[in-house]
Amino acid sequence: MNLYRLLCERRENPVRVGIIGAGKFASMFLAQARHTPGLQVAGVCDLDVQRARAALQRTGWSRDEIDARTLRDAIAVGATYLTEDAATLISADGLDVIIDATGDPVVGIRHALACIEVRRHIVMVNVEADVLAGPLLARRAREAGIVYSMAYGDQPALIVELVDWARATGLEVVCAGKGTKYMPEYHASTPDTVWRYYGLTPERAAQGGMNPKMFNSFLDGTKSAIEMAAVANATGLTPPAQGLQFPPCSVDTLPQILKPRSQGGTLQQKGMVEVISSQNRDGSKVERDLRWGVYVTFEAPSDYTAQCFSEYGLVTDDSGRYSALYRPFHLIGLELGISVALAALRGEATGAAQGFTGDVVATAKRDLRAGELLDGEGGYCVWGRLMPAGDSLALGGLPIGLAHGVKLKTAVAANQPIRWRDVDIDETLPAVRIRREMEAVFRPPNTARATA
C-alpha cells in the first residue's frame, strides 16, 4: 500500500534498472518509467542498438537522455546507456534490477544465471524461459539472496496476485486463469494462416510491425499453455490432465462453469488452472467475454460467507457458494514497474515458481517426417500442450522451449507429443543441462521415468 511513498523516497538515489530486449513489452515499460519517481532506466540492451534507440525515442525520451557514452556516465547524470552486450550490462556496477524481455528461453536462462552469479534481482518477462527451467532458477536466486520475479502487467503475475488475494482472505481457490480467442482448429495454425484468423491481411499486419510467429503462438494455444504452466508452478494449482479445454465462458458465468464437474461445472477437481474462450464453438462471440483479462474462482468456506456473497452483490453459481473475481484487462509493460519496485524496495517477487507442477510439451501440428527441423513456438511444426509435470516427465516430452532448431530422428503423427528420444539434441548445451537438472531436482514423487 505504500509502494509509491517508497519510490518517492528514492528520488535522489533511484532504483537503477537495465532492460534486455527492446520490443513492445519493453517499449511500454519505457513509456512509463520516465514518469515514475525513484526509477532510472540506466541501460537498454538489444542486439540491434538502433532498435533500442528507436524504442526510446518513440516513447518520449529525448536525445540527451539516451546519449550516455558509458553506463557509469548514465548513472552519474541520470541518463540511459545503449548497448548490444547483455553480459556486460548484467555485471556492471550500479544496477539494482535486470529485466529480461527477450522472449527467447535459451537466452533468458543464460541471463538469469548471470544475474544470480552477480546477485542482481531479475524480472522475467520471458515466460518461455521461466517455464523451461523457472523452478530451478527461482531456487538458485533465493539461495543467492536475490529476487527472481514474474513480470507484473503480464497475465501470469496478475493471476498469481488474484490467487494470493483469495488465499490470504481465507477463500479456497477453485480455478484461476485468463481469457483468450480460441477455436479447436487454431492448434494447426501457421504463420501463413494466422492473419486470416485475426481478420487481417498480411500487408496490414506488416505495416503494423506484427510478428506472425509471435501472434501465431498466441493463437495456436502455445502461449496460453506457457502462461498457465507458469501460474501452476507459482501457485501449485493443477493443470488439466488432458490439456487446456478452453471452455467458452463469460464473466457472469465464471463461478458456474469453473467449478468441479461433481458440482455441475467443467473442472476435474478443485484447484486447477484453465483458459476460457471468448468464442463459442460455433464461432459466435461470447457476450461479456474476458478475452484480455484474468480471473480466479473460489468457494465460500461457510454458510455465513456464502450469505455475505449474496448480500454484497457477488455473482455466484446456482448454489451461491462459488464466486469469482476478475480483472478485464492487463497493461503488460505499462505496469512492469511494479515488479521492479517490489524487487528493489521490498525484496519481493510478483510471483515466482515454487515447484514443478506444470509443463508444456511440443506437439505435432501435422504429420512430421524424420529429418525435419523443428521451428519452435508459433511456427509451422509444433504447438505447446499444457500437461501436469509428472505426466510430461513420464512421457519424456520435449519442452516447447527446446523445440527450435532441432532435427527429428523419427516421424511423429499430427497431434502427438514429441519426446526427447524423437529429436537429435545436444545435451551439453547450457539450457539443456539446466532443464535436465531442473527435472531431476523437482521430479514429482512416484513419477515413472520415460523409457529411452
Strand content: 15-25%
Number of domains: 3
- Secondary-structure-derived class: alpha/beta
- Total beta-strand segments: 15
Mean residue pLDDT: 95
Quick rundown:
This protein is 35% helix and 17% strand. With 452 residues, it is an alpha/beta fold.
Folded structure, characterized:
With 452 residues, this protein is α/β, with parallel strands linked by helices. It folds into three domains: 3-154 and 333-346, Rossmann fold, CATH 3.40.50; 156-182 and 221-329, no CATH class; 358-441, Type Iii Antifreeze Protein Isoform Hplc 12 (Alpha-Beta Complex). Helix content is 35%, strand content 17%. The protein contains 17 helices and 15 strands. The protein has helices at residues 3-8, 24-33, 49-58, 71-77, 86-91, 105-118, 127-144, 155-168, 194-198, 202-207, 212-219, 222-235, 254-257, 303-311, 337-346, 389-395, 430-441, and strands at 15-20, 39-45, 81-83, 97-100, 121-124, 148-150, 172-180, 272-277, 294-299, 322-327, 358-364, 373-375, 382-388, 404-408, 423-424. The strands form four sheets. The chain has a six-stranded parallel sheet with strand order 3-2-1-4-5-6, with helices on both faces. Strands 8-7-9-10 form a four-stranded mixed sheet. Helix 7 (127-144) runs parallel beside helix 12 (222-235). The chain starts with a helix and ends in an 11-residue tail after the last helix. 49% of the residues are buried.
